[in-house]
Sushi domain-containing protein
Amino acid sequence: QNGTGGLLGLYSRDARDDFTLPTGQQISLQSTQEDIHMRFGKAWRVQDRVSVSDVTQVASLFHHDAIPFAFYDDPNFLPEFGLPPRLPDWAEHLRPEMESVCADSIPCQYDYVMTFDKEYAKVTKQHEAYALFLANEAARRYPRCPALPKPLNGRKSENRYWPGTIVRFSCDDGYRLVGYEARRCREDGLWSWGVDPECISDLKYTGRIAGIGVGIILPIIIVIILVIGCFIYSRRNTKEHYTGEPGIQQPFMEYSNAKQANESMPGGGKAIKEIETSAREAEC
């Protein structure tokens, strides 16, 4: 870049210096076709080298099977500068044919007037249509997904990120892939959802799997221990009975034990019998 010269310009991405002469001077972009040909085109004309010491002449870039360059070049040639070119008076009868072949294509009309060959003009029109197609495609904006880096100690299958592209990831020997193995570039320019892939060593992978297993099993064991503890606690309280008062539950001795204790006391047997009589009357 910025190191070329000639008919293609300086390759500087600046259109204003496209018409730079060998002397470094520049021709205006608004110059006429004839002025560009006479001042710019002829200034860069390549001639056959007559003498190696002649610095005013340069060698042709191409070898033409020993045919001298002058065979291909006519310094006195003047192109048709008018666009579109005018048909000669003697060829006016060919205008309908030119219009049917070229329509409004100026390059096609130009080649038809220069050659009077309709097949040649058709090819020119086809090339013009293809050039316009390429220009439109180059100017068209396509969605593109952002670049996906390959995982460390791994690789990816694609370096293109157009919609519909599927990128697959894999790891080198001795490593395991963690995350999504494949991602797809969507039509909106975003990647399909997924965890970024990572390549980890086999030892680290085994430790990670063991950690996940412990994290799952340990809560289950804790729950089982709590259930067993609750069950044992409830079994130990099976001898406790409800006293009849809301919210109060307290243990007391069995009736037979209380009866024996009261009968052993002076006058206790009579009290027990009165209680039993009152209980039977209440049941009736």
Notes: The radius of gyration is 51 Å. Residues 215-266 form one domain. The beta strands are 154-156, 166-171, 175-178, 182-184, 198-201.
